[in-house]
Amino acid sequence: MRNVGLYSFLLLYGFACCNLYGASLLKAQSFPKTFDDLSFSQRIGVMSGGYEVLEKKYDKNGICISNCGAYHSITIEDDIKRSEQNTQAAQQQMNNLGYQIGQDKKFIKLVEGKSPQNIISQALYRCSPVKQDIPVGQQEPVGEPLIGMPEITSSYGFRKHPITGEQKGHCGVDFSAPIGTSVFSTAVGTVTSVWSDSSCGKGIKISHSNGYETVYCHLSKQLVSIGDKVMAGCEIAKTGNTGMSTGPHLHYSIKYNGDYIDPKDWIGRS
Asked: Does domain 37-267 have CATH number 2.70.70.10?
């Protein structure tokens, strides 16, 4: 009888636990929301916080239908051509600034100009440079934002999204990195956005000279604030897995005159 009583008790206890927790355990898990899923008021809040387009969405006919910016309804082919033209314009400007592609397949500066510490007191900058392979006074975003040349898991261009399976345009480079890895600014600049959204997660955008901006996404920790001035090679964040992400990594983008470019010649890898 004792065994029967104990069995009945355990059965009733298990049934009670199922009633309490079953709904949450069996509830279908949804993926993180994209910008398209947000309400109008939520979009306004995200945009005001500094939202950056990471991927563009195209329909089955190859027409851009989401995150197209000023290029709504542009075809994949036209979008590729526009991106190539903007990248070529940035490459030409780099040549005009005294850069050429070196043996490591990235830009190297052959003509040294004035470094910002000769123009602006270092006291105005938030931190000291700590990434040794980026010149302190570098004003253009050349080099990588992480130490050790980590694996590139997704390059700039068009790909099938790892979560949704849709054809999308990827507006940057993804570096594989454990959560908490140091992220560095690749050029002298001013932090213009520090935000969090459902796509980029925790993000940072920095404005540099000559029309350049850099964007850093999926961070676990942001170490700068809007308005901070940072030296080249300065630690600005820690990598994470926030936003729409399939694993710990850093999404890094370069913008030229307000639009994304293929960063391979600035990084030295593709």
From this structure: yes
